[in-house]
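Progress against Task 2.4 (sequence-to-structure conversion) is shown through the following example record, which the project officer requested during the mid-term review.
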Amino acid sequence: MVGELTFEERQAIFADAERARAYLEDVRWPDGATCPHCRAEGAYKLTGASTRKGLWKCRNCRRQFTVTVGTIFQGSHIPLNKWLYAIHLMCESKKGISSNQLHNELGMTYKTAWFMTHRIRQAMSNDGAATLDGVVEADETYIGGKTRGGKRGRGAEKKTPVFALVQREGSVRSFHVQDVRKRTLQGLIATHVAETAHIMTDSFFSYRGLEKTFASHQIVDHGKEYVRGIIHTNFAESFFSLLKRGILGTFHHVSREHLQRYLHEFSFRWNRRDAEAGQRTDDVIRQAIGQRLLYLDSASCAA
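Structure tokens generated for the chain above:
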């Protein structure tokens, strides 16, 4: 697997489509090929001069398939090595990589690069369903351009609220929300956090009453202090800081329609911040199974 390979071996895979296909087969089928149509094991690879490369046939249902069937790569005419290199760049770039930069890097049209990056973000969204536990920070922020005059901060025009739940020394879940009302935020907390967790928030009124549902609820009043011992929301704020630097410095503009996919991307990297080089790429491939993104309007997003 790429996560276990040297830098030179990974570069060789990114430069050759057939090596990339072999890598995908190893990651998807570590114990041998499984038919994506009937889930039966024991498929065999077809050979011959007239046979399409990478073609398998199921002994059970007799249908043919390749390693890309049922994944984000299905139906794509982009060489698999370019797919893997794009995944690698998105996984290893701390603040992400724009479609514009990717289209120059891989020698493809901007529209193709844009569609590719959103397919990859779709795979990153399939990141487990385990509830957060222990000490969990809840916080909200706003994403959007600056405006002259008018209200600033919460409720400002052209700004979109983003909510995050961060388990200390653990994972983050981030959400594009329509509002920051109590019902909205506490509904997400109830869905994604175990009742045995200890919740840390600021003094925003939407968090009031959480102590009735969870083990405890500690509040830090940012009007007076930012840290009181272990009571703070610094991990959530650190995630937001990285997210904003990526959006402002790398993507420059993200539409509301596609913001959630970008949140999946930043959450995916955060959750694997201690992973070894290449391991994130392996995880994207595994999560790409069963993920399809058949249509997107490239005119709706400038990143």
